[in-house]
Each structure stands twice: as structure tokens, then as C-alpha cells.
Amino acid sequence: MGKKVGIEVSIAAAEAVGLCDVDVVAAYPITPQTHVVEHLSELVASGDLDAEFVPVESEHSAMSVCCGSSAVGARTFTATAAQGLALMAEIVYIASSMRLPMVMFLSNRALSAPLSIWNDHSDTMMVRDSGWIQVFCENGQEVYDAIFHSFRVSEDPKVSLPVMINVDGFNLTHVIEPIEFWDKEMVKAYLPPFRPLSKLHPDKVLSMGAFGMPEIYAEQKQAHDVALTSSTPVILQGWDEMAKLTGRKYSAVETYRAEDAETLIFAMGSICETSTIAVDKMREQGKSVGLVKLRLWRPLPMGDLRKLLAKAKDVVVLDRSIALGAANAPVTSEMRALMYHEPQRPKIHCMIAGIGGRDVTPDDVVKMVNMALSEKDYEYHIYGVRG
Amino acid sequence: MTKPMDEMTWQEVEPGGVISEPGCASSYHTGTWRSEKPIYKEEICIRCQRCFIMCPDASITPDFEKNRMVWNYDYCKGCGICAYECPVNAIEMVQEGE
To answer: What contacts A244, CB < 8 A, 6 or more positions away?
Structure first.
């Protein structure tokens, strides 16, 4: 078992990437991701990590370098946020469609304008349909553990897809937490060497990134979708194996005091910890409230979610981004779509909370639940908006 | 390629669209894109070979034994450059299917 260290989450994540003996890091610094790549460049410069650190001129180039390095069979890592992800977006889709394993640390930040460096989920929702495996983290330990898990899942030949780790900017990236470290033996036992499905090598010539005529595009997309949706067993197995090593057991969906709850709060990321306090407060007041925490956003664990949500009368989704002009905010829309054909389904309410870094306290969560339960319409609402 | 592209199922496509057999682009007949077809009039042709030089798809070659030009309609997209460049109008573009 590794030692427990009081450390900033970004630095711990970079240490984890170093422990995975990554071959290539290509990234452009952007708040609030900066500390991750800064520390990785220090590890490479000091000789502690034998890797290529590519200080690219833009995020578009960062993701392009990552595609190239993954294509030759190198273990690949990048990190970005908001506008950086927006600039990357073109190649983000290409990485997953070409089934190139790599891990991205995404420090979730609001998209401009107005220019904001603070946390929400609008950046990640922009690429939710890109065909990456996408996980959310609630605290620093989860972020640290997710690095090892993500490399293992991404590089598994049954999966061969890139993995995006969503880490709430500042709320998680810049906080100091006690984190239990892994040692080299644990990583060696957990993470096998990267053996790509196919790679660019002069001994066996092949082409990657060919164009697809209308006769073949749909078949490629179906194959990609099936690869993503059938990656779940590998993801779950990765968490099971980790539990044996560390004693920490993760799953696709987790609950807190939800067994008999009439009302369920539904959340992703660091707001889950805030919500657990809110649940305790409401339970003390005798209210039947629980929490559903979603870790695995893509592929969505549809069966687990349907079973959990069907038992509730009301579900209050805390959406961390707004989909302008849409039927609803992204996570609410998805939960409604998921439950639409169920014979027994809850009312699903939407509360858009904490966009652009607006603070959300446990009391805010309590207020949002009360507002949702007394609302007359079922539209989306930005909580706390003035006017 | 093991199978023509338009017969492959999603289970049969290579992961990530990798092309594991190099040079297979020639198995795709771009001649199917053609809407106009060049017709060669051997009796007018002066054998200057300008069409051979100008063809962007290398679909026209000289046959020295038979002393004439030969068209490869598998890859001729019917762009009409040969007909445009011919100094004696020995190539006529006609609608496909006529």
C-alpha cells in the first residue's frame, strides 16, 4: 500500500501519469489545467520521467500530436480546459473514431463568452457525443485513481478508445487533499504494457485516417458505437481489480441514502460531495431525499440508471451547463429520454447550478430541491439568476 | 480488401477504419463517378499524345504496337480535359448511357 500525502490534486494527477510511465505528453497550458502539465514538464526535465514532452503551439496541435504518438504505440497523455478543448474539438472526434488509446485530463471550465476561467461543465458537454469514454470525479483521490484506471481501460485491446477524465476546475484541480499514493509495484501489477490493436510501423505497412465513402461511413460509426457501449465490462473490471489493490471500490453509478428516497438528487462531479451534506440536512428535517452520483457519463450505464430512477417520485438534476434554445439542459434531457418509455417514471426536474464558477453550497442544493418540487412547469431554470 | 466496400457489414470493418492492405485504392473504380464519357476518333487523331500528358488520372496511355491511344474507363472520371486539349477534336464527350 502506498503512502498518504497531503497534495494538490493537479500535482497528484501528474505524479500518477508519471507512475504510469507515459511515453508522450503533448499539451498547451491553460487555466485551470496548468499545474498538471507544469509538473509533468518538471518530471521530464529532471529525468524522473523518461518521456517526450511536446510543448505544442496550440491545443489543435496537442491533440494531433497525441493521435500520432498513439498511432505508433506510445502511451499518450494530454490535459486541457474549455477554450483549449474547443480548439481541440476537431481532432477529439478523430482520436476516438480512429480508436486511438490516450488519456485526457479535462479540468472542467466554462466556455467563453463572457471570458471565464471558472468551473462548470459546458466544455465537456460540447464533446459529449465524440465517442470517448468519459468519467467524472468527485474528489482528489478519485482523480488520482482514475489516471491508472483510464490508461488500463483505454489501452485494453477489447476497448482501444480514448478516455476523458472530467475534473472540476479549481473546485478539484487546485485543492489540497490527503491522497493515498500508489507505488511502482502496484502500477506494474495493475497496468500492463501498451499493445495497440494496430500501429504505424515500417515492418507492416498500413494506412490510418483514410476517407470513408457514403458506402462505408455508417458501418464505421456503428462499429465505433458498439465498441464504446461494449467497453462497460472492461471499465467495471478495471474498478474491481483496483478495489483488490487499494480497497477503494468504484462503480458506474453510486448512491447516497437513496434506497427508500422519494426524491433523488442527480449529480456529476464535485457537486456530489456538496449534495451529500444537503441530503443529510434534509433527512434531519424528515424529508425523503437521496442522491444519485454518476461517475460513468459515456458509455451511459442505462440499465443501472433506469432501475434507480424508476423507484423515485421526483428526480432533481443538477445540470452544470446550459444548452441554449434546447428542450432542456444536457443531463436532464438525457435522463428524460432514458425514462420516457418506462412504465413507471419519476418527474424529472432541471436545476442549472454553478455555471461560470458560481458557488453552490449545501443550502443552495436544499433550496434547489425545494424549488424543483414546488415548480408549476417542467422547464429548465438557472438557479440564483438575478432579475 | 477482402470484400467490396458496399458489401461490408459493420462487424467486418477494421477498427478505426485502418487500411491494413496498402495500395488498395486501385480496387475502388472511380470511373463510376463519370457522367460524360470521352469517345476517341482514331481516324482524326494525329498521335500528338497531348491527352496522355494532360489526363489527371493517368487513364489514357499510348499503345505503340497498334499505333493508337487507349482509355481505361475504370478510372476515367469523365473530366473532359482530354477533349478540351485535343488540337484536332479527335475526342468527343458524350452523355453516359447514350
So the answer is: none
